[in-house]
Design goal:
Elements: E1 6-7, E2 16-18, H1 26-32, H2 45-51, H3 58-69, E3 85-88, H4 97-109, E4 114-119, H5 122-129, E5 138-143, E6 160-165, H6 181-184, E7 196-200
Parallel strand pairs: 2-3, 3-4, 4-5, 5-6, 6-7
Antiparallel strand pairs: 1-2
Length: about 200
């Protein structure tokens, strides 16, 4: 089996992604069922899509979950890509330290590509980065789970924070405003000086 790259649509049109199965990730399932109004995971687009019109994606995402989290990739397993940018976790979340280490290995094997990884699992990132350097072409974005609480400084080891706010909160700070990522690139550009991304909460 080989790692599956998803061709994205909508806001992410023009990008490919390496994603995993949200519906079988214990962390995602627990957070989605949390019930707290200010937890962005309770409004998860991925859970909604995989239950309905994107059910057919689940097998490919589950293969990625298994490939990336159960053992370290051998060099022969690591895919080559000539994409300029790859999104990590358009669906899903880091599963464990093996998963994150494999993403780092994929990035190191493809220095010509910028990889941008969204995660709430600061615990996993912190543990791994205590043992190894972050690849220079991997952008780490902390996906802030708390709605309406803008993190002005990302956690140690992260390059940016991604924050969700109610539509009427801090409109002057909302710099993710519905345009396609490929024409914005705030999240995907290394060293652009932007460390805080703010988007209004979407409804799915």
């Amino acid at each position: 089996m080989s790692i599956h790259f998803s061709v994205m649509s909508g806001k992410l049109e023009g990008l490919r992604a390496i994603s995993t199965n949200t519906a079988t990730n214990d962390y995602c399932v627990k957070q989605n069922a949390d019930g707290k109004e200010d937890n962005i995971c309770t409004k998860c687009y991925s859970h909604a899509m995989l239950r309905t019109y994107r059910k057919n994606m689940a097998p490919a995402l589950q293969r990625n979950s298994d490939l990336l989290s159960k053992r370290l990739l051998y060099k022969a397993d690591i895919p080559f890509t000539n994409d300029a940018y790859i999104r990590i976790n358009a669906h899903g979340e880091l599963i464990n330290c093996i998963h994150f280490e494999n993403i780092c290995r994929i990035a190191e094997h493809n220095p010509q590509t910028v990889f941008a990884l969204w995660t709430k699992r600061n615990d996993i990132v912190r543990e791994e980065l205590a043992c190894r350097p972050k690849p220079a072409n991997l952008i780490l974005i902390y996906s802030n789970p708390k709605i309406g609480h803008i993190m002005t400084k990302p956690p140690r080891g992260f390059d940016r924070s991604f924050n969700n706010v109610p539509a009427d909160m801090a409109p002057e700070r909302q710099n993710c405003t519905g345009q396609k990522c490929i024409t914005c690139m705030l999240c995907y550009t290394i060293g652009n000086g932007v460390d805080t991304i703010v988007e209004k909460v979407k409804k799915y």
